[in-house]
Amino acid sequence: MTASDRALAPGAAPPDAEAVLALLAAYLATPLGGEALAALRFYRDREELERLQRRWSEAAVWRRERGAFPFAALGDPRPLLEDAAAGTLDGPALVQIAAFAEQTGSLRANLLDAAGQDPRESWPLLAELAEGLPRLDALAQGLRRALLPSGEVSDEASPELARLRRQLGRQRQLIESALGREMQKLGSGGDGALQDTLITVRNERFVLPVRAEARRRAPGVVHGASSSGQTVFVEPLETIELNNEAIRLREAEQAEQRRILRELSRQVAAAAPQIASAAGVCGALELEAAKARFAEDYAATRAEFGEALELRQARHPLLVATLRGQADRAVVPLTLRLAPERMLIVSGPNTGGKTVVLKTVVVAAWMAQCGLPVCAGGAELPVFDALWADIGDVQSIQQNLSTFSSHLVHIRGILEAVTPASLVLLDELGTATNAAEGAALAIEIGAWLRERGCWTLISTHHDSLKAWASQQPGAVANGSVAVDPVTLAPSYQFRMGVPGVSAGLDMAERLGLPAAIIAGARGRLSREQVEAAEYLQKLQENLAAAEEQLRGLEARERAVGAREQALAAHDRTWQQKQMASLRAEMERRFAAFAEAGDRRWQHELEELKASLTAAQQRKLAAARSRQRREAAEAWQAESAAALGEESAAASSRPEVHPGDPVRLRGSRALARVLRRLADGGYEVAAGAVRMQVGAAEIEAVSPPARPAAASAADPDRLTPATLELNLIGLRADEAEARLDKFLDAALLAGAEQVRIVHGAGFGVLRKLVADALRAHPQVARFAHPPQNQGGTGVTLAELK
């Protein structure tokens, strides 16, 4: 007995291998992927195994980054390549090959074209596989140019075909014109010879439907009659030669189409090796994508390879598939570790899950070494050279072998083939024969496998085999599947390091066998057997209680953590609500304060207006605007202090001294500080204009400028009589804010006229300036200057 490298070969495939592959096949949409799955191999090289596990993991990343690729659109072109070599491909077959070539190009681009990341860093192994996709773009373009989507040959396939079709079209027009004239002669209806005024085709020739009784009124060739015999189809004499020419052109067209299809078939045949190679790569890529989808749906992981056999939260994929969608049932995961031990004796009651433990381990090992995801939370496995399993009833009627004999024959073959790198699974070893002899044989087989260093899992009911395992520390470990200590119902929980209880008599009692039989059977047990069973039962009960206590502690820990998170979230929510309420109250009070101040100032201003000159009124309006801004700044500062916040503007406000050059908020013009005012503001000079500004109006202190001659062309240069503002390049909201501040400064400086440069453009800024000036109470009038002074790109405004 030898092991093959085929995934389903003896010595590689566990009992459930084909069913597991069927689960994976459900994720494949093309024969190409199915062929790649059928060629699956069992690998024994650690470096290659790690590479295969990384590759499907990269496919999972690729799916997340680029989305699912539509593999279903990839047909298998290889059956068509034989016809291509014979030059007999028809139009639809060529269109199918063109579609395949385009899809392979899309697949290559999807995997290799960078889109924010380098694919050779994100999925290097997939990219390496995709680089094996040959470029078939030229072939696809040539086929698409020559063929319509329906498979018909396009006019663009050749100049000769286009010429013939043009001639054929003109010929049909001549025929239709001639037949039209003939229909006018013959007429229709009661006195006419025609059955209907239409042109039809018989035997590829254009004919007219003539009433049978009027046949002699329509000279020509008859090409048949209707099923009722009331209509005959006549080709008028005038169109015979025209139809002959049309048929000649149609035959020439068909010949040219056949020539074109042969040429396209020849091109496909020349590219046949590349097409076949592309099909193989596409199948491999689809299989990797299917593995990634399987891993996502079955919560599978990438296997690691080392010196230990360790599975964490492992599940048999067939059980996952069977119980999927059943809310009241779930797979109980398996966790075990063998190191330094290489042998595990699994015991426990019938239907308790011992065989499932063995199958879960061997299926995980097989999937890992076939490059498939492992259904586990984590998996570290040795690299096995073979997987040997004796599981289930192998009775052979044909060979006249009993169940016990068949098991022994199978085990003999396994013992002949094993090496220290083999994984061996023996289910219910030593059963179906005398209990004492079967137990002795099981111990000797276990000792033989231990001496050879094989990785071995054995399920058993023999107490002597469990006892033997406990006497082999560091080499053999015990494990058990648990049962409910009261009901004896299996829980399917695996416990490492503890032998299990078979509980055959207890289960028989629970299932209703007569009490006298149960009592008699118990009386036949030796004192040692009774004490051993009671000890194991007590051990299982203590373990169950400890596990229940541990689960309770873990549940309480999770509840405490959730409670702490809820309290922290509640505290944050309460603080946010309190801050929002306080801010709302502050804003309400400020609005009331501002409204009362407005009314008071408005009343006082109305009383003073009568006695003030125009210049004084302008200065008063500017002072009023400044005071309102300063009041708002003061209120905001108080609000921030009340809320325990620090104004970002105040904390970053520069220190200003007389003589410092500064830049005012909302203006590109530089000003110089003259003195500090008692209210915390500053008196500054901007050109020839002196003005008083609040501290918040100073945006930044500029480094001292080198003396330079004033430029008459400077757009921000100020004069006593005229101020200029340049709004070009600003957004509407920025321009509006800057215009408002500019008008305040101009009024404070006593300017009589201002110049606002907004550009012509689409008129957005021009309309904004006009609306703002029209609404401003201190603007007397405004207009555009002559064209040589800026025209519609400038607005001049006179102030009151």
Polypeptide structure, described:
This protein has 800 residues and is an alpha/beta fold. The chain folds into six domains: 17-136 and 271-297, MutS, DNA mismatch repair protein, Chain A, domain 3 (Orthogonal Bundle), CATH 1.10.1420; 157-265, MutS, DNA mismatch repair protein, Chain A, domain 3; 304-511, Rossmann fold, CATH 3.40.50; 525-644, no CATH class; 653-705, SH3 type barrels (Roll); 713-800, Ribosomal Protein S8, Chain: A, domain 1 (2-Layer Sandwich). It is built from 23 helices and 23 strands. It has a six-stranded mixed sheet with strand order 10-11-12-8-13-14, sandwiched between helices. A five-stranded antiparallel sheet has the order 18-17-16-15-19, with no helix packed on it. It starts with 16 loop residues before the first helix and ends with a strand. Mean pLDDT is 82; it is low at 394-401, 645-651 and 704-722.
SSE inventory with pairings:
Layout: H1 17-25, H2 31-38, H3 46-66, H4 78-86, H5 91-112, H6 119-122, H7 124-130, H8 137-146, H9 159-186, E1 200-202, E2 205-211, E3 220-225, E4 231-236, H10 240-270, H11 272-297, E5 304-305, E6 309-314, H12 317-323, E7 334-338, E8 343-347, H13 354-369, E9 378-381, E10 386-390, H14 403-417, E11 422-426, H15 435-451, E12 455-460, H16 463-470, E13 476-483, E14 490-496, H17 504-510, H18 515-523, H19 527-609, H20 614-642, H21 648-651, E15 661-664, E16 670-676, E17 682-686, E18 689-693, E19 698-701, E20 722-726, H22 732-748, E21 753-757, H23 764-775, E22 779-783, E23 794-799
